[in-house]
């Protein structure tokens, strides 16, 4: 009996790769310029505004997935609740007295989501899962983007533009890991990681992902966050790599349950990158983990 041939590797889609790279370069120029100027108050406000727009786009895609499954999540209620979380972190970064406490955000979100559904949702048979999806999208996206804002609001006197440096670290470590995973998985991937959830992901890609995360963390240590130790770079690279991978797999599981190839089902597509939810999935998991490390290990509040 002849052994089964090894699975074929996917290979690199050169056409899509060119579009992905072009889009990424345009975005990177604007984004890195904003981070470079991050010590200015207007830059922090603009950054929050950009994340508010990204949250709206991602929430739209999240509700479309819910509706594709036959439920009625609310885009308006989910977006308003998500913006409440985002505003909490922004105001907390500007004023340590916490002018918009988290308990108040939760209470107001409950009013918006549940009272809004009471007035507008006519399909009572699906009220529970519909409101649960709205809540999950608001918390998932609001808290994830909120921690990005929290990182950007840091302003240490010992190192200029601390917030800009930290957000740059978060994005570069996550993105370089994703890029390495794509190339290593496409060229060398043979052993499937989670075929039921994400058929294209392989263990070889995971290895490339973590290697890219650690490499990026050491580059950040050398040129951006020079106060990091070798242990910091290694720990942050691995932590963000694992968190980002989990975020990617979780979103893939949601898409699989909704029967969607990518999160963009009628929303605004990012050329070569799919929907906004596909771009945020790793970051919204990695940002709270990164904040926890910076807070508990380096004592930043």
UniProtKB/TrEMBL annotation:
<feature type="transmembrane region" description="Helical">
    <location>
        <begin position="132"/>
        <end position="154"/>
    </location>
</feature>
<feature type="transmembrane region" description="Helical">
    <location>
        <begin position="166"/>
        <end position="185"/>
    </location>
</feature>
<keyword id="KW-1003">Cell membrane</keyword>
<dbReference type="GO" id="GO:0004605">
    <property type="term" value="F:phosphatidate cytidylyltransferase activity"/>
</dbReference>
<feature type="transmembrane region" description="Helical">
    <location>
        <begin position="71"/>
        <end position="90"/>
    </location>
</feature>
<keyword id="KW-1208">Phospholipid metabolism</keyword>
<feature type="transmembrane region" description="Helical">
    <location>
        <begin position="17"/>
        <end position="36"/>
    </location>
</feature>
<dbReference type="GO" id="GO:0005886">
    <property type="term" value="C:plasma membrane"/>
</dbReference>
<keyword id="KW-0444">Lipid biosynthesis</keyword>
<keyword id="KW-0472">Membrane</keyword>
<feature type="transmembrane region" description="Helical">
    <location>
        <begin position="206"/>
        <end position="224"/>
    </location>
</feature>
<comment type="pathway">
    <text>Lipid metabolism.</text>
</comment>
<keyword id="KW-0808">Transferase</keyword>
<keyword id="KW-0443">Lipid metabolism</keyword>
<dbReference type="Pfam" id="PF01148">
    <property type="entry name" value="CTP_transf_1"/>
</dbReference>
<dbReference type="GO" id="GO:0016024">
    <property type="term" value="P:CDP-diacylglycerol biosynthetic process"/>
</dbReference>
<comment type="similarity">
    <text>Belongs to the CDS family.</text>
</comment>
<keyword id="KW-0812">Transmembrane</keyword>
<comment type="pathway">
    <text>Phospholipid metabolism; CDP-diacylglycerol biosynthesis; CDP-diacylglycerol from sn-glycerol 3-phosphate: step 3/3.</text>
</comment>
<keyword id="KW-1133">Transmembrane helix</keyword>
<feature type="transmembrane region" description="Helical">
    <location>
        <begin position="230"/>
        <end position="250"/>
    </location>
</feature>
<keyword id="KW-0594">Phospholipid biosynthesis</keyword>
<keyword id="KW-0548">Nucleotidyltransferase</keyword>
<feature type="transmembrane region" description="Helical">
    <location>
        <begin position="102"/>
        <end position="120"/>
    </location>
</feature>
<protein>
    <recommendedName>
        <fullName>Phosphatidate cytidylyltransferase</fullName>
        <ecNumber>2.7.7.41</ecNumber>
    </recommendedName>
</protein>
<feature type="transmembrane region" description="Helical">
    <location>
        <begin position="42"/>
        <end position="59"/>
    </location>
</feature>
